[in-house]
């Protein structure tokens, strides 16, 4: 497949030849919303929700004591104040006038030709349109090529196991039963139980994003399973809430570019150092290669070392096991369960992977006297590692060989030295 490059943010890897109008629409981005002349009810609903939020703010002020704790959304509807009633009535009249008098027709954000092009792209089953893995661009792929890539990813029987619909029902029942047990054992409160429980789960869809930054002609795909609506979604959110504070205690985990530049700016080159290498490492398929038992053991040991109570660690272990062992999705016309690793897209994925790697780094890199004098700086953003290495290239190769002996699952690629 030879890439066809288009203007701005669109990459066309498909056999479809884009028209000018199609290209214009795609460059609006995948979050672009065309004007809709039939949105009267939706606009009124949004205004009513806005008034509700204002009233709640008026009633409860800036009380944020528990606002970050995950909990089931409240359905409480406060009585509006007279002022908000007047505001809502005025908005309803203005919106009704806007739609009944046809004023909306003045504000279409697409021409007739562009609207036709958008519908044509949406109905063209021969092409698949996705955002790329990194950079915010959009890529067009032939659907047949994309589906073949998906099937190839799912052939990894170490990571994915095909299951039948009956097994899905058993998995849902198992998760519900475990949550009920945790509630009955007073490991979680009734409020937490109500948040974690998803009575009517929806099976997620397996999809993939093209890694154009690695190859333009035949890009590999990054598997994504969002987990939205699945029976363990809220469990994953809760785990992320419990574990995320410990990420802040790991000095080598990067938050953003500014954090990286700050750490880099504080590095002082020793006078005795003659040769410094800048090295980047990329861990291959991090989310799907971490063995579940290894990951849970690493989290347990890490939290124990940080002084977390045994009861809290046991709860985190139980909830992590639910998420890791019961990730189900639809892909390539079949139903699968992920047998190893964490689904990239589930809420706790980044936090879980970060902490597992932190434990590995403490044991094998940061706490290893053999390499301590050679590492002037070691930081990581999820699966991307940056090192300032004090020493010759041959010594770094020895270090890299050593890293591959520390586990059976971590593999490093895209090594760059300057």
Please sum up the structure shown.
The chain is α+β, with helices and mostly antiparallel strands and 418 residues long. Helix content is 46%, strand content 15%.
Tell me what you see in this structure:
The protein is α+β, with helices and mostly antiparallel strands and 418 residues long. Helices cover 46% and strands 15% of the residues. The protein contains 15 helices and 13 strands. It has helices at residues 20-26, 40-60, 82-100, 112-123, 143-154, 165-184, 190-196, 233-247, 257-265, 286-289, 292-305, 310-325, 349-366, 369-372, 393-406, and strands at residues 4-5, 10-12, 127-131, 138-142, 160-163, 207-210, 221-224, 276-283, 328-331, 334-338, 375-381, 384-390, 412-417. Strands 1-2-4-3 form a 4-stranded mixed sheet. A 4-stranded antiparallel sheet has the order 11-12-8-13, sandwiched between helices. It has a 3-stranded antiparallel sheet with strand order 5-10-9. Strand 9 and strand 10 form a beta hairpin. The mean pLDDT is 89.
Key words describing this protein structure:
418 residues, alpha+beta, four-stranded mixed sheet, four-stranded antiparallel sheet, 13 strands, 46% helix, 15% strand
